[in-house]
Amino acid sequence: MTNSNDTGNFARGFIIGAIAGGLAGAVAALLLAPKSGAELRKDIADTSVDLYGKASDYFNSVEGDLARTMDETKTKANSIISTARSKAEDLLKDAENVLKDARSKASQTKDNIQQKFENIKDAAIAGKDAFREELES
Predict the structure, then answer these.
(1) Using one digit for the tens of pLDDT, what is the confidence trace for 16-30?
(2) What is the dihedral of CA 16, 19, 23, 29, to 10 degrees?
(3) Is the pTM for the entire model greater than 0.70?
(4) Could you please report the per-residue DSSP string of the chain?
(5) pLDDT, tens digit, for every residue of 104-128?
């Protein structure tokens, strides 16, 4: 982006320099030409109007280019923001799903461990009862 900016600044400076140089050259030519005062004033006025028109056209063109560039930049920025927002929402949804799965698996594991503990407890009680019966007989 810096290259584009530098090129734009160079082009702008070059055109401004060309206009200023053209104006200085035109004034010098008019002043050095062998004409009457009225003709000279008319030529200076005509040249000034012409140069003003060219400068005005150039600046209007630059203004239009700048407005288009700003619109394009705004559109690209909005697109980037929209894409980033969408990706962030997708990541949050994925994270929520992973968390739900983890909670579900943790609950299932807890239930399995409790069931195995109950089985061991029941087996221990059955073993104790069997041992008592064996002792009593």
Answers:
(1) 888 888 778 777 776
(2) 130
(3) no
(4) -HHHHHHHHHHHHHHHHHHHHHHHHHHHHHHHS---HHHHHHHHHHHHHHHHHHHHHHHHHHHHHHHHHHHHHHHHHHHHHHHHHHHHHHHHHHHHHHHHHHHHHHHHHHHHHHHHHHHHHHHHHHHHHHHHHHHH-
(5) 999 999 999 999 999 888 888 888 8
Contact 23, 55 (CB under 8 A): no
Tokens (6 digits) for 96: 């929520």
> For the residues of 60-83, what is the DSSP string, one character each?
HHHHHHHHHHHHHHHHHHHHHHHH
Q: Are 65 and 48 in contact (CB under 8 A)?
A: no
Alpha-carbon distance 45 to 39, whole Å? 10
Residues constituting the chain: 137
Dig out the tokens for 120 from the structure.
Answer: 């061991």
DSSP 33: S
Listed in order, strand segments (DSSP E) in the chain are none
Distance CA 44, CA 17 (A): 20
